[in-house]
Design goal:
The chain is mostly beta strands. It has 2 helices and 12 strands. The protein has one domain: Porin (Beta Barrel). Strand 2 and strand 3 form a beta hairpin. The radius of gyration is 21 Å and the shape is elongated.
Length: about 240
């Protein structure tokens, strides 16, 4: 994937966060940290919506609290989203013929990442938050081969990959579900990702030709989308 120079700003924010933690004990760092794991649905907007459908996957987030109350924090997110796949059964090779069949599966992924400040209401049954960030979105299409009996992949190829910068704005709510030492919360949030132009594939973009050749029809557009998350948060 090509990574734009503007992505360096994301790394700078991470360094700022790390610098703010200097001189603190591991226990203090743990008390200021929280982690979220969520199921995620992405809904393409604009040009992107005309080319691909909804995506489904997982999102992980790390938060570092900057003040004792937990109002200000730095949040970093990374997700992996499947926005379409296809498969076909074929012979392993022309030499072997139809005696050994395999599955060829092609999956299209989006990998959104972002980091930025978050503002959270730190107490109450429902704790709203808002955040903004900068980062990027990776687009990746991969094909792999597995056996028809065991479904274990034994070969794979990356058909297309690209990366574009993005900025995000979002919000949500935390709802405490455990009041003991674990301190778990439900995390329900939504985020708008304003992505730059990127090249990517959609289901059906790879055309099989005679003789084992393929034709890849790339799509290029802006990559705006909305992400909806539902998961659990541990910490704070």
């Amino acid at each position: 994937m090509r990574i734009p120079n503007s992505f360096a700003a994301t790394a700078a924010l991470i360094l700022i966060t790390a610098a703010s933690s200097r001189g603190q004990s591991p226990r203090e760092l743990a008390l200021r940290s929280s982690f979220s794991l969520s199921a995620i649905q992405t809904r393409p907007q604009g040009e992107l919506a005309r080319n691909i459908g909804f995506g489904y996957g997982v999102n992980g987030a790390y938060e570092f609290r900057l003040d004792d109350a937990g109002i200000f924090s730095i949040r970093a997110d990374i997700g992996v989203v499947d926005y379409g796949n296809e498969s076909k059964r074929t012979a392993l090779s022309e030499t072997v013929g139809d005696r050994i069949q395999v599955n060829v599966r092609t999956t299209n992924f989006i990998v959104p990442i972002s980091v930025g400040p978050q503002l959270t209401w730190p107490s109450g049954i429902v704790r709203p938050y808002v955040n903004v960030g900068i980062g990027g979105q990776g687009f990746l299409t991969e094909s792999h081969v597995d056996g028809t009996g065991d479904n274990i992949p034994f070969a794979s190829t990356t058909n297309q990959s690209d990366f574009t910068s993005s900025w995000t704005v979002g919000g949500g709510i935390y709802v405490p579900i455990v009041t003991s030492k674990v301190r778990a919360q439900l995390d329900l949030g939504v985020q708008y990702l304003n992505g730059g132009r990127a090249r990517y594939l959609a289901p059906g973009s790879i055309e099989d030709l005679p003789g084992g050749h393929i034709n890849i029809n790339q799509i290029e557009s802006a990559t705006h989308m909305v992400a909806i998350r539902l998961g659990a948060r541990i910490g704070l």
